[in-house]
Amino acid sequence: MARVNPAELSPPRGFSHAVTARAGTRLVFLAGQTALDGEGRVAATSFPDQFRLALTNLLAALEACGGGPADLARVTVHTTDVAAYRHHAAQLGRIWHELAGRDYPAMAVIGAVRLWDEEAMIELDGIAVLP
């Protein structure tokens, strides 16, 4: 994969403008993950902790398919509180670096009225490209 960030676009902070993949690769579509524990309960209450657990869950699903964080081509962040996402952006970036490394996929943050799990404030889904 290659991350593409054209000079004429605003500098990306925490995302890539585009990601390309070669033909002959395998796509993995990752379902939305929230801060659920193994028992199916939302196991975090703070925004950063929910982000950490949702990302951990997303990466666990990707790992089960044979991939890792560098294989993520796209991640969509759904949140019930865009202002909280912006407020915690630096901390969320540190969590991303800790769990997923320094490369960012193409990303979008979408505000939602609520998520499937009522206590969830954040949900992550994604697309990965495996060799």
Provide key terms for this protein.
single chain; 131 residues; two-stranded antiparallel sheet
Protein described:
- With 131 residues, this protein is α+β, with helices and mostly antiparallel strands.
- 27% of the residues lie in helices and 28% in strands.
- The chain has helices at 47-64, 82-87, 89-100; strands at residues 2-4, 18-20, 26-33, 72-79, 106-111, 122-130.
- The strands form 2 sheets. Strands 3-6-4-5 form a 4-stranded mixed β-sheet. The chain has a two-stranded antiparallel sheet with strand order 1-2.
- α1 runs parallel beside α3.
- The radius of gyration is 14 Å and the shape is globular.
Rg over CA atoms: 14 Å
Question: Quick one: how many beta strands?
Answer: 6
The helix content is 25-40%
Q: Could you report the average pLDDT, rounded to the nearest whole number?
A: 95
**How many H/I helical runs?**
3
User: What is the N-to-C order of secondary-structure elements (H for helix, E for strand)?
Assistant: EEEHEHHEE
Intertermini distance: 9 Å
